[in-house]
Structures are given as structure tokens and as C-alpha cells.
Design goal:
By secondary structure, this protein is an alpha+beta fold. The protein contains 14 helices and ten strands.
Length: 417
């Protein structure tokens, strides 16, 4: 009989003797696996949803806003307001080929929007075509965002945020209808698709209205920008791009490029990196909690292995006295520990998959908290992490009892009760 056959036969005999203990141990491993997988699945779902939420405002963008100088510069005193103009955008676009996109924003707060008998006050933004891509303003089917011709011809067209459209039009289709913006007629050309948005400046996009920037300039008589939005081709070059913008605008408005409050900037690449690190920390924390829960099952496996060694000490000693190889003693115990762990892990995986599927069916529409947290997700990385933890638990739980069994002195076992 080969060594592998002997090991399998010894393993099968031992498993039948310890049947009740084996069932309880497998149940403990299954419970720990369910806890581990659910925690990792919630962490993975939260990570994915947060990534989606962060992309809602736009991916890899930097947002400048007007500020006030805090340093004197070339004889000019501090405390001067810095207000970029609409033509600065064209200059920056020409001088900074490293940018993938740049737009200016002009804002009018509490602007009157009227359709039929409904009048509400909302935020109106004047901007250009690239804004739709940079700020993730995607039109619903049947509509569109503003284009270059709208801006060039100063067309009175308007793009509505989805919540703003619902407030104005209720259940009617907005596209093609005419709304009054401060009593000036604008044709609705599109409504923004619903999106989750974690970051905002000035308010959520869902309650915002967008018109061409030249139309805005003509109606409201302004040329000062409320914000400048940039997106470098390489997100890793964001800090260099921010510095370059300040250097180019510094001579125009007379401020020190190192005076950051003069022209504030929100670096979403950096804030996104910080958020991802926080989420990774949360995932690791949840994984540790799940791993500790699974360790309880591992302790159960170790206990049953130690009990097996103790009960069979005399038998093991006799086998070794008759010439049994050490592998015939240790291998069945290792195989037994792994078998209990993997069987419990497989049952736990099935249970966790079922629970995740049930939780995924819970509707989240209308519940902002659930929409923000996302749905638990079992991914390949979660599966590999749990498989690795299970394998380690099984090996460690069986290794030490097996080593103890292999070190038994055959002469002393004859006196063992």
C-alpha cells in the first residue's frame, strides 16, 4: 500500500470516530466564514459606491475659486480680491497643452425660473461645452448638453438638473418646453441623468441649471468667473498644473503665485487619494474583525486535533514502535484540519453568497443613506482573501497538534492511560 493510501485511510478512520466534533467544528468555521465574507462584502460595496459618488462631480479635476491676497507683491498691498475673467480661460487653454480640459463658470444665485404657474429660485451656471464632460453632466435620453454653436450664437437654451426639472415640470417632459429665466425665455434642451454626488461646491448639480456662458454674459452683464475647472491629462500632474495656473494668472492680477489664498483650489485628485486610503483602512479593519471571528472556528479545529492526538496517543506510540513513518502520523491530522476548514469555508461561502444576493435585492431608491453606502459585493479579491485566510487557519490549527503527535515517544506511550 502506498504512503498516500495509508494517509487517506487513517484520515477517513479518524474522521468517522470524531464525527460529532467534526460537525460542530465545521459549523463554527462556516459561521466565521459568513461573518468574514459579509464584512468584506460590505467594505467592497462601500468602496465601489464611494468611487462612484466621487466620480459624480467629475474625475481628476481641480476647481479654482476667487480669493484674496494675503501677501504684498511688487509694491501691491495684501487684502486685494482676485477675480479671473472669462477670457482667462482661452489664455490658459493655449498656454497649458498638458490640460485635457478647462472651463470657466459664471454663477447667478437665486435666479427666478418659471414654467406655467410654477416659479422657483435656483442656481444658474454659465459655461461651455466641455463642462458636461468635466463635471459629469450627462443628458437623459431625448436631450443633450449645450454645444459650441449654442455658445457662439448666444442661444437661449438651458440644461436642467434632474431634481430642478422635477420641481418645475413634475411628470411632464421638459425637453422642448420654454422656461423663463428672470422673465427671459429659454428652451430646455436636456435634463441631467440622475447621479450620486459626494462632493459639491455651491450645491448639488441636480438642482442646478446650465446655460451657454456667452448667453449668461449677455443677460447678466458680467465677465468675472465664479470658478475655473481644469483636468490634466495625467492626474499625477495635478499639483504641477495648479501651480502653473497660478503662475500664469499672477502677472495679470498682481499676486504672488505662492499666495494660495489669492486663488484657492480644490485638488480632487488628492482628496480622492485620501478617501481611497481611508476606505482601504476601513476594509482592513473589517477584514481583521472577520478574521478574528473566523479564528474562533480555527481554535475549534485545533481543539479537536489536540483531542484526537490525546485520545490516540497510545495508538500513535504503538504505530511508531512498529515502524510507522512520521508522515503517516502528521499527514492525516493536517488533512483532517484542512478538510474541516475547507468544508466549513465552502458552506460559509454558499451562505454568504445567498445573504449578499438577498441584501442586494433591497431597493435603495428614495433612501439616500442606502444609496450612499452602496450594496455589499462579493468580488474576486474578497474570495481570494477569504480563501487565503481559511487556508492559513486550517494549516495552523492542524500543524501544532500534528507536530505534537510526531514527537510522541513510543516507550512512554505504553504507560499512557
Amino acid at each position: 500500500m502506498s504512503s498516500s493510501s495509508v494517509v487517506l485511510q487513517l484520515f477517513w478512520t479518524s474522521s468517522r470516530i470524531q464525527r460529532k466534533r467534526a460537525y460542530l467544528t465545521i459549523a463554527a468555521i462556516a459561521w466565521g466564514t459568513v461573518a468574514l465574507l459579509l464584512l468584506l462584502a460590505f467594505g467592497e460595496g462601500l468602496r465601489k459606491q464611494m468611487s462612484t459618488n466621487m466620480a459624480g462631480m467629475g474625475s481628476g479635476i481641480g476647481v479654482f475659486w476667487p480669493g484674496e491676497t494675503t501677501k504684498g507683491w511688487q509694491g501691491l498691498p495684501p487684502g486685494r480680491p482676485i477675480r479671473p475673467r472669462i477670457d482667462d480661460v482661452a489664455m490658459l487653454r493655449e498656454r497649458m497643452p498638458e490640460l485635457d480640459g478647462i472651463v470657466g463658470e459664471m454663477r447667478s444665485w437665486q435666479t427666478s425660473l418659471t414654467w406655467g404657474r410654477t416659479t422657483i429660485n435656483a442656481r444658474v451656471t454659465g459655461t461651455t461645452r466641455e463642462y458636461g464632460d468635466l463635471r459629469n453632466h450627462i443628458a437623459r435620453q431625448g436631450g443633450r448638453f449645450i454645444n459650441d454653436l449654442d455658445d457662439e450664437h448666444r442661444r437661449r437654451v438651458i440644461f436642467l438638473g434632474n431634481e430642478l426639472a422635477e420641481q418645475l415640470f413634475a411628470k411632464e417632459e421638459p425637453v422642448g418646453n420654454v422656461v423663463l429665466v428672470n422673465n427671459v425665455p429659454y428652451t430646455v434642451i436636456g435634463v441631467m441623468q440622475k447621479k450620486m454626488q459626494m462632493g459639491t461646491y455651491g450645491g448639488p448639480d441636480a438642482s442646478n441649471a446650465v446655460i451657454p456662458i456667452q448667453t449668461f454674459r449677455a443677460q447678466f452683464g458680467r465677465d468675472r468667473l465664479a470658478n475655473v475647472v481644469i483636468r490634466p491629462r495625467d492626474p499625477d500632474q495635478m499639483k504641477a498644473a495648479i501651480t502653473r495656473v497660478r503662475e500664469l494668472l499672477s502677472p495679470r492680477y498682481g499676486f504672488d503665485p505662492a499666495d494660495e489664498p489669492a486663488l484657492g483650489c480644490w485638488d480632487t485628485v488628492e482628496s480622492g487619494r485620501i478617501t481611497r486610503n481611508v476606505l482601504l483602512g476601513i476594509q482592513i479593519f473589517l477584514g481583521i474583525i472577520g478574521g478574528l471571528t473566523l479564528t474562533i472556528g480555527g481554535v475549534g479545529v485545533a481543539n479537536i486535533m489536540y483531542a484526537t492526538v490525546k485520545e490516540r496517543t497510545r495508538e500513535i506510540g504503538v504505530k511508531m514502535a512498529l515502524g510507522a513513518r512520521p508522515a503517516w502520523i502528521t499527514a492525516p491530522l493536517l488533512l483532517e484540519g484542512l478538510a474541516y476548514t475547507l468544508t466549513g469555508g465552502l458552506l460559509g461561502l454558499v451562505g454568504a453568497t445567498f445573504l449578499v444576493a438577498i441584501l442586494g435585492m433591497i431597493p435603495t431608491d428614495g433612501n439616500e443613506a442606502l444609496q450612499f453606502l452602496g450594496k455589499p459585493t462579493l468580488s474576486l479579491s474578497v474570495g481570494l482573501a477569504s480563501a487565503g485566510i481559511l487556508g492559513a487557519v486550517g494549516l495552523l490549527a492542524a500543524y501544532f497538534p500534528a507536530r505534537r503527535a510526531a514527537s510522541v515517544d513510543p516507550a512512554q506511550t505504553l504507560r499512557y492511560e
